[in-house]
Amino acid sequence: MRLVALLYLCALAALIVTADRGALPGPLMAIYALPWGDKAVHGLLGLCGAFLCDRALVGRRWQRLPLGSSLLSVALVLEECSHTALAHRVADPLDALATLIGVAFGAWAQSSCSCSKKRAATSVPS
């Protein structure tokens, strides 16, 4: 699972660099052209990233929060803030909010998967 999370983070970094250069591929631009398409992409990227990172770092926590989601949240919000320094990007607080909502759902989904596995492993067969 760690390899999958690492590959996802590399793909996410490549997407961020491509977007920062203003060179997103056509299909992705079509999604961004839809109403709320940009926010949906931010939420989906946050959700998938949190799920995979928390899965890769299962059991590791920071201040009672899953470590993967915590690190991903900080990195993605800082990345959104960095748009103020780029001429062709706009720092949108709603993008950061959509990302954080996605991260929260991803962390919840991963913890739900972990809890159900723990319950199944500790339950006594009848």
Number of helices: 5
What distance lies between the first and last C-alpha atoms, to the nearest angstrom?
A: 32 Å
Overall SS class: mainly alpha
**Largest pleated sheet:** 2 strands, antiparallel
Helix content: over 70%
Enumerate the spans where pLDDT stays under 50 for 5 or more consecutive residues: none
* Structural Rg: 17 Å
Approximately how much beta-strand content do the residues carry? Answer: under 5%
What's the shape?
A: globular
How many distinct folded domains? Answer: 1
Name the strands of the widest sheet in spatial order.
1-2
What order do the helices and strands follow?
Answer: HHHEEHH
**Oligomer status:** single chain
Instruction: Determine the mean pLDDT.
Output: 85
How many β strands by DSSP? 2
